Amino acid sequence: MKQEAVLKGVFLKQKEYGINWPGACYDINTHIKEYSEKLSKMAEELNVRIDLENPLCDENDVIKLSDSLKKRPLDGIIIIALGLETWELARRIVELGVPSVIFTPYFCFTKHIKELSYKKGVWLISSLDFDTVRYGIEMIKTIQQLRSSRIVVLQGEETTPKDTVIAKLGTKVRTIGSQKFVDEFNSVRETEEVLAIASEYIKNAKKVVEPTRKEIINATKTYIALKRILKEFEGDAISIDCLGLLRQQLIPVTPCIGLSRLNDEGIPAGCEADIDSILTMIILRHLFNKPGFIGDPTVDTVKNTWINSHCTSATKLAGIGESSEPFLLRRFGHLPLGVSPQVLWREGQEVTLVKFQGPDEMVIGSGKVIGNIDTPPADICVTSVEIKVDGVKDVRETEREIKALHVLLIYGNHVKDLKAFCQLIGIRTSLI
């Protein structure tokens, strides 16, 4: 079971309030009470723990805070700066190296903003809208979720699980040979659950194009097999070297439906054993409660558009628990077997293009869906989303920022939010 994220709420106050902002008339105790109540409510709603400290007002208080961190490390600190003379204390707390969200209701000059707001490990908010602190808490929780998550990777020929840890993020990886999926798939029978899920897909599909009912039942078994593997190896996310299995003709069906359904349920699941992509999916899931769509990028040089193409798109693109987008049931894009959902992305929908590139970079862009490309005539992967990318004069140039195949799409323009997350966790960003 994942551990609860533990944060500390720290109020910074001046020893005296006189002529400087916020002035002698500022009722600091009332405001501390108000902010404390809001923090407690956010903690309850987001299922995190926020311990509230007595207000800090001098260097000795920061030393005591530092000593307490040695006894019990924190996942993050919420700093509420309530005075123009509190910024040296804020700077000293940031130097403790704990991800810090700083809020001030305008009690700062531009020099204070410039000094701290671009610093790694910090997200600074100067605003009257205290509700924006909520996203700061969500970012800290996501950092903690990354550290406590385990990805199961099905790749290679190892018969004994091999455990590693992703540098910087702290995410655990448990790798086991791909044969494990073959064995698990072969053990799945046509139970009532399998038949019910297959019937659900047939009923909900806008159209069943190529697959037979038998093929859809087989595809449903991949979902059951993946769920069993996640349970056995205590995984929170999964990625599989599916193409390797297909090349060796070890499976009669692709796991596309299984991966799609797991993502609909909020379990990040990716193909081709791509670690960077599954890490991106975990981040998107916890920050925005939406599934990311891993895809191979190509471009239309005539229309100057980007195309993300793959066979494993989730259907609940607006968010986990939301309604599915329309989809067709198709065969796998490159072979006369398997079942893949051709998900019809909403035309006009704003999207974010994103990819974590280990160990310390995230590529980010935004755009708008202008259409869905059918296969055939395109004969690429079955879900192919055409995007007009924002601010890009020539889409051919986007390849410079991408180290490897696969970029993810997610509903909504989250560029600003992702840049804030990268700054807080301490990784650099590159814009597509």
SSE map:
Blueprint: E1 6-13, H1 28-46, E2 49-52, H2 59-71, E3 76-82, H3 87-94, E4 100-104, H4 110-116, E5 122-126, H5 133-148, E6 150-154, E7 162-165, E8 172-176, H6 179-187, H7 192-204, E9 207-208, H8 213-232, E10 237-240, H9 242-247, H10 256-264, E11 269-271, H11 275-288, E12 293-300, E13 305-310, E14 327-330, E15 340-343, E16 350-357, E17 361-372, E18 383-389, E19 407-411, H12 415-425, E20 428-431
Parallel strand pairs: 1-2, 1-3, 3-4, 4-5, 6-8, 6-10, 9-14, 10-11, 17-20
Antiparallel strand pairs: 7-8, 12-13, 12-19, 13-18, 14-15, 16-17, 16-19, 17-18
Question: Looking across the biggest beta sheet, what order are the strands in?
Answer: 12-13-18-17-16-19
Largest sheet: 6 strands, antiparallel, barrel
Tell me what portion of residues adopts beta-strand conformation: 25-35%
Low-confidence stretches: none
Structural class: alpha/beta
CATH-defined architecture of the largest domain: Alpha-Beta Barrel
Helicity range: 25-40%
Rg for CA atoms:
24 Å
Between the first and last Cα atoms, what is the distance in angstroms? 37 Å
Specify the number of helices: 12
Which CATH class of the largest domain applies here? Alpha Beta
Q: What is the fold named in CATH at topology level of the largest domain?
A: L-fucose Isomerase, Chain A, domain 3
- Which outline best applies? elongated
Number of strands: 20
Number of domains: 2
GO cellular component, one term: cytoplasm
Keywords: Carbohydrate metabolism, Isomerase
GO molecular function, one term: intramolecular oxidoreductase activity, interconverting aldoses and ketoses
Organism: bacterium (Candidatus Ratteibacteria) CG01_land_8_20_14_3_00_40_19
